[in-house]
């Protein structure tokens, strides 16, 4: 299904502070509820339409939106673009990992094992260095799928409920965080066993995590309003509070230049943190209640899913 240009595209070209060039907003069909977003290799942008169970494909050049049904009962939460260039979804409604072929639009699903049915609250996913996709389920699991063989393993998470954000490092390692458990964990790629690390701030609500180019793990802390970083090589932690009195740090993404992008629900803003200067720069939404749950991008662009306003937003910034 394709949406007309008039409905699909709203351009709001606004001046930004130093370090960014422009931002644009793209209106999506009402009811799509874009939860997560990911930039594709050919300029396209994918989003997880959670309420209607669709994969959304936005063409930023024209504003056209294509909506691809993912299956009966679908409710996708996360979306990433894999090493094959295809969008991969964590589909909580189908309790499955779902792939969409970007050329044919064919949908393939890998349901979780029967003993893990019907619902583990699938959240996010990341690929390791061996082509396998790892995922989290907030009801207390994490798992691994080998798409080539179809082999899927699911393990009980430490401390039960809470696994949420997950990331792969440049070395191909896998780390995830627990929102309810307030920890960072490193998964053994073969056995699946995890090593748990406790951030210095107690009960901080580690929500999402992303690796920088050096393999350091940047964590958005929902309860504390901090952004923290763990360096596995040095085994050290550092934390910074976001601007404002009571920030609520939801999402994190590290751009190719190692700038750290975050979302702050309290400020209704996207925030960029420069680790070199330890300074924050804020980019508020032009509408209240944007409720940005996730953001991803590519060099020079950060793509944002505004679930509250049912829009996709881009900030084009001055890449180094």
Report on the structure:
With 320 residues, the chain is mainly β. The protein is 1% helix and 49% strand. The protein has one helix at 5-8; strands at 20-27, 34-39, 45-49, 54-58, 65-69, 76-81, 87-91, 96-100, 107-111, 122-127, 133-137, 141-145, 152-156, 163-168, 174-178, 183-187, 194-197, 206-211, 217-221, 226-231, 236-241, 249-254, 260-264, 269-274, 279-284, 292-298, 301-306, 311-317. It has a 4-stranded antiparallel sheet, with no helix packed on it. β22 and β23 (260-264) form a beta hairpin. The longest helix has 4 residues, at 5-8. The termini are far apart. The relative contact order is 0.13.
- Strand arrangement, largest sheet? 1-28-27-26
- Principal-axis shape equals globular
Using only C-alpha atoms, the radius of gyration works out to 18 Å
| Span of the ends, CA to CA | 38 Å
Secondary-structure element sequence? Answer: HEEEEEEEEEEEEEEEEEEEEEEEEEEEE
Q: What percentage of residues falls in helices of 4 or more residues?
A: under 10%
| Overall strand count | 28
Number of helices: 1
State which percent range the strand residues make up.
over 45%
Structural class designation: mainly beta
Q: Report the mean per-residue pLDDT as an integer.
A: 93
What oligomeric state do these chains adopt? single chain
Give the biggest beta sheet: 4 strands, antiparallel
Poorly predicted ranges:
1-18
């Amino acid at each position: 299904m394709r949406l007309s240009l008039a409905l699909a595209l709203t351009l709001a070209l606004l001046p930004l502070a130093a370090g960014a060039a422009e931002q644009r907003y793209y209106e999506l069909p009402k009811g799509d509820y874009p939860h997560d977003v990911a930039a594709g290799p050919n300029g396209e942008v994918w989003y997880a339409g959670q309420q209607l169970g669709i994969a959304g494909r936005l063409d930023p050049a024209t504003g056209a939106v294509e909506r691809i049904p993912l299956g009966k009962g679908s409710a996708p939460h996360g979306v990433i673009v894999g090493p094959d260039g295809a969008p991969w979804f964590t589909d909580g409604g189908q309790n499955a990992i779902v792939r969409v072929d970007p050329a044919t639009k064919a949908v393939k699903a890998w349901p979780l094992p029967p003993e893990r049915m019907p619902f583990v609250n699938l959240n996010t996913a990341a690929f390791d260095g061996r082509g396998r996709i790892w995922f989290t389920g907030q009801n207390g699991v994490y798992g691994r799928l080998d798409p080539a063989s179809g082999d899927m393993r699911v393990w009980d998470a430490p401390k039960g409920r809470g696994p949420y954000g997950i990331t792969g490092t440049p070395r191909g390692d896998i780390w995830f965080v627990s929102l309810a458990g307030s920890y960072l964990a490193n998964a053994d790629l073969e056995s699946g066993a995890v090593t748990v690390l406790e951030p210095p701030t107690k009960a901080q609500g580690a929500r999402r995590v992303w690796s920088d180019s050096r393999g350091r793990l940047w964590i958005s802390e929902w309860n504390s309003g901090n952004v923290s970083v763990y360096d596995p090589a040095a085994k050290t932690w550092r934390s910074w509070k976001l601007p404002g009195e009571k920030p609520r740090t939801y999402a994190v993404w590290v751009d190719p230049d190692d700038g750290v992008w975050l979302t702050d629900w309290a400020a209704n803003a996207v925030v960029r943190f420069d680790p070199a200067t330890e300074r924050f720069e804020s980019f508020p939404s032009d509408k209240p209640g944007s409720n940005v749950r996730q953001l991803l991008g590519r060099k020079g662009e950060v793509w944002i899913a505004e679930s509250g306003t049912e829009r996709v937003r881009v900030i084009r910034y001055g890449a180094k």
